[in-house]
Amino acid sequence: MNRAVKKLMSRKRLPVWRTLLVMATDLMAIGAGCCLAYWLRFYSPLVALIPIQHGYNPNDYIAIMPFIWIIWLAALRFENLYRRRSRVFDFNVVRRIFTGSCLALLVLIALNFYLPLGVYSRVLSLFMAGSVVAALVASRIVLHYLFQWLVLSRGIGQSRTVILGGGPLAEQVYRSLERHPERGMKPVGLILGRSATSGLHLPEGLPVLGPVDDLEALLREHRIDEVILAQPEIDYERIPRLLVECERAMAVFRIVPDTTELLLSGMTVETIDGIPLLGIRETPLQGWHAALKRMIDFGVALAGLLVTGPLIGVLAALVRWREGGPAFFVQERMGIDGRAFKIFKLRTMRLDAEQHSGPIFAEDFDPRCTPLGALLRRSHLDELPQLLNVLRGEMSLVGPRPERPHFIDQFRDNVPRYMARHKVKSGITGWAQVNGLCGRHGSIDERLKYDLYYIENWTLLLDFKILMMTLFGRVRPGPV
Asked: Parallel, antiparallel, or unpaired: how do β-strands 208-211 and 185-192 relate?
């Protein structure tokens, strides 16, 4: 597998692509099941046993297929078959496929009763119930082995995981992770609550990376993606500090419930071999929601580039003609999971803007701006090329604005929870921006409060509201 594919299917973001792949496969299975049911009803030897009493128009069945796909997919979503890290196939998945398919079929029958869309065979509905379920189960079996062979066996999609603790509970978690590689968590080491290892029961085959006092440095050194706290004797007061250190290192923090009496509200629960793992519910923008947001971003960005492409070309020509030098400005920013990417903008500043001052924040009436650049900034037309970043998957239409690594290195240690902004993709516009917190307006702490509100309370409706406020200039300061 080449390097580009491995970069595309990164360890932390595989669940998004995994969800999209599962959804696409389910759509194909639903279509195949409907075609099989149609063949069984009208062309198979069963026709002799169940004679066709009415004339049926095949165009009616073709016309209703989009409704079948939407309703069936929504029913499977209702059965929680597209959750982040949910099993692709097991007995529970088969049960949910059957339940969701029955629900979809009932909705289709009800729609046909109240909103007659054509003349359909009732026998065909019975065939669909069996053929679609069979097709979905078969596709899930294929995906299950595909993920195990192609994805997990090659290490793609696995989060590098450390276990914080060194007792029997830590060993139980380690053995469970080893038995279930399909969960995508690969144990790479232990971090101990104390530096001495004498008297501790340590899992065999798992190296000790260091003490918990050096947690943040160890996470960065070993490129750790997830931390599982499995140390019953740890002080409750240390947990918030551990959480902050994990956020700074862009690692997910999970807790085996035996270690804490935290309330379950606002937390996620996963089980491995019956061991429950608690995690802080950082954002609803995962799994199905992340896949849906990505599809919307891609479609809107593609349409936006097609519509605004000529305008971007004219503005780029004006910048080059009036100011000289390159028309586009390319700068490194930090995005989701702390990954760097190149952001595209129309150039608004002089070529030597930071030659003497070094990296500094832009101002409302920045003297470094060119006359044309000042106009582009006031109208926000300089941001249009970022639609290409959205198309490439580096940004989203809505999200926290990306910052430069130079400033992030300062905020990481001085602003608590600042790195939590990078749990979602950066955006062209955001909740902080439409509330007037941009440029020199508002402190970093204020912007972070709005960014975290967006991340923790994301909905498609909130995205739509932010886009409308951005497009129609309804920027206002207001409470979170």
From this structure: parallel
Specify the pairing of strand 275-280 against strand 267-272: antiparallel
Find the radius of gyration of the CA atoms of the chain.
27
Q: What dotted CATH number matches 159-280?
A: 3.40.50.20
Cβ atoms 88, 147 nearer than 8 A? yes
Report the range out of 232-241, 256-265, 297-306 with the highest average pLDDT: 297-306
CA dihedral 143, 146, 151, 154 (to 10 degrees): 160
Distances (CA, A) of 296 to 23, 319, 376, 421: 15, 31, 27, 21
- 119 is written with which tokens? 């003349």
CA 66 to chain centre: 26
Question: How far is C-alpha 217 from the geometric centre of its chain's CA atoms?
Answer: 26
Distance CA 138, CA 273 (A): 25
Using DSSP, state whether 312 is helix, strand or coil. helix
H/E run at residue 427: strand 427-429
Q: Which residue has the tokens 């999970």?
A: 254
Report the 10 Å Cβ neighbour count for 284: 14
* pTM for the full predicted model: 0.59
7 band by pLDDT with thresholds 50, 70 and 90: very low
Task: Spell out the domain ranges in the chain.
Answer: 3-152, 159-280, 288-471
222: closest CA among 176, 257, 197, 187? 187
Most confident segment among 186-200, 326-340, 463-477:
326-340
Phi-psi region of 417 (alpha: psi -120 to 50; beta: other; left: phi over 0): left
φ, ψ dihedrals at 292, nearest 5°: -65, -45
Please give the sequence-ordered ranges of beta strands (E in DSSP) within 130-207, or none if there are none: 159-164, 185-192
Burial group, residue 208, by CB count within 10 angstroms (0-12, 13-18, 19+): middle
Give all strands (DSSP E) within 179-286, no chain letters.
185-192, 208-211, 226-229, 252-255, 267-272, 275-280
Strand partners, 345: 329
Residue 93 pLDDT more than 80? Answer: yes
For the four alpha carbons of 240, 245, 250 and 255, in that order, the dihedral sign comes to: negative
